[in-house]
Amino acid sequence: xxxxxxxxxxxxxxAYVMAALLxxxxxxxxxSVSMAARCLTKDxxxxxxxxxxxxxxxxxxxxxxxxxxxxxxxxQAVVTxxxxxxxxxxxxxxxxxxxxxxxxxxxxxxxxxxxxVGQGTLTSCTSSYPPPLS
Length: 134
Fold this sequence. Notes:
This is Alpha-macroglobulin-like TED domain-containing protein. The protein is mainly alpha-helical. It is built from 5 helices and 2 strands; from the N terminus they run ααααββα.
């Protein structure tokens, strides 16, 4: 599992694991979550995918970096009248099968949307998490 980008970057996978731990109600002060947050804080990636998943994980932890990461992500967004999307660096599209026409979203672009939308919701809403599923 690479966490969505093929450059060998494991930061997005760390962010996914951190988010999964927090969604499973692991406390943000838990050692595994704290170590993941420390690792993610040291990363300076500007890739929209990495920013989105890091922002989401940090928002779940109520970490102060969540807002600045979301702002960096929004700064890269292409905003039109009816849409908001991100253009990915060219090297990430080279390995995409030819069956994807240029006018269709690449898989990573679709996958990037839920974390960024979810993070925006978490940032604007300070209510507690919903009860766990039984």
